[in-house]
Amino acid sequence: SYVLTQPPSVSVAPGKTARITCGGNNIGSKSVHWYQQKPGQAPVLVIYYDSDRPSGIPERFSGSNSGNTATLTISRVEAGDEADYYCQVWDSSSDVVFGGGTKLTVL
Amino acid sequence: QVQLQESGPGLVKPSQTLSLTCTVSGGSISSGSYYWSWIRQPAGKGLEWIGRIYTSGSTNYNPSLKSRVTISVDTSKNQFSLKLSSVTAADTAVYYCARDGFPAENWFDPWGQGTLVTVSS
């Protein structure tokens, strides 16, 4: 089965840039999607197709995907960005796969 | 704008069947080429995809749950449903329904607000 690996936590100061990684075997050949989940709320799609943003998602959110690592980048981090972030792919053998999630803490 | 809302019992006894319904509003469940999925999240843990259904009735299930899961759709009510049999405490989780763009746009958007199901006697 296909596995996605995320760091459990990432910390960043306000105004700085946060990078959250998602590792998987040759993940660069797959489309990666990212979700933001704030406490007590449902996940919200923030990036699809590696780097596209749904309407309403700030330009501060961007994504990239190459080789064995996909990255969600949040620029000019704000306190309101504090949340859990999950990556997700579709794999022909595993169907839907989610990463374990990364807790973003804004210092 | 499409919205989803889960409903069903919040407490289920061990060995019984968990039943939830997702009501879609703001659009027809039959419009577009969308599938409709169930996803769950135990407290403090990550997301687990349970399965999906198309309005034709075609389904795909997570292999780890396949033997216990049934997803159905009622287009007349704009609803789809989840049944999970022989539940144990390990099935205690927040259950979400979501629109699934499988296979081409294989992400989930939007999601319902989620409903907590506790398995306990």
UniProtKB/TrEMBL annotation, chain A:
<dbReference type="InterPro" id="IPR003599">
    <property type="entry name" value="Ig_sub"/>
</dbReference>
<keyword id="KW-0393">Immunoglobulin domain</keyword>
<keyword id="KW-0732">Signal</keyword>
<dbReference type="InterPro" id="IPR036179">
    <property type="entry name" value="Ig-like_dom_sf"/>
</dbReference>
<dbReference type="GO" id="GO:0019814">
    <property type="term" value="C:immunoglobulin complex"/>
</dbReference>
<dbReference type="InterPro" id="IPR013106">
    <property type="entry name" value="Ig_V-set"/>
</dbReference>
<dbReference type="InterPro" id="IPR050150">
    <property type="entry name" value="IgV_Light_Chain"/>
</dbReference>
<keyword id="KW-0964">Secreted</keyword>
<keyword id="KW-1003">Cell membrane</keyword>
<keyword id="KW-1064">Adaptive immunity</keyword>
<feature type="domain" description="Ig-like">
    <location>
        <begin position="1"/>
        <end position="97"/>
    </location>
</feature>
<dbReference type="GO" id="GO:0002250">
    <property type="term" value="P:adaptive immune response"/>
</dbReference>
<keyword id="KW-1280">Immunoglobulin</keyword>
<keyword id="KW-0472">Membrane</keyword>
<dbReference type="InterPro" id="IPR007110">
    <property type="entry name" value="Ig-like_dom"/>
</dbReference>
<protein>
    <submittedName>
        <fullName>IG c445_light_IGLV3-21_IGLJ2</fullName>
    </submittedName>
</protein>
<dbReference type="GO" id="GO:0005886">
    <property type="term" value="C:plasma membrane"/>
</dbReference>
<dbReference type="Pfam" id="PF07686">
    <property type="entry name" value="V-set"/>
</dbReference>
<dbReference type="GO" id="GO:0005576">
    <property type="term" value="C:extracellular region"/>
</dbReference>
<dbReference type="InterPro" id="IPR013783">
    <property type="entry name" value="Ig-like_fold"/>
</dbReference>
<keyword id="KW-0391">Immunity</keyword>
